[in-house]
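User: I'm curious whether this sequence folds into something compact or stays loose and floppy. Could you predict its structure so I can see for myself?
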Amino acid sequence: MSVERGQIFRQAWIDGVKRHFPGEPKAGYIAPWAETPEWERQSAAAVFELVKALLDATDGKAAKLSRIQKGQFVSAAFAAQIFRHIEDPKPAYTAGWDDLPEWQRATDADIFEAVELA
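Assistant: Here's the prediction. I'll summarize afterward.
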């Protein structure tokens, strides 16, 4: 998996958190790539690749998905990565779309759109 692609994902996450999070985000939410845990770096790269594969498999037509659909795709893919890397994750880490805060939904959609542009 490409480190560069993982970094694009991470930067889109940081940018989204800064744009959408109400108040001051936790330091870990906006930690730079070098300070991000290895499992999270691997997950970022994997989810980038999944979004790219969806775009490739649809000849780019997946870009026509709604922002909700884009965010749901990123959210589900990242939750799957959490299950891959963490034996017994906190329920909040793998919450379903309807249980995510609005800032996180918007950030996940932003990530999909960042992959579109990459």
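Summary: The radius of gyration is 13 Å. The helical segments are 3-20, 38-57, 67-85, 102-117.
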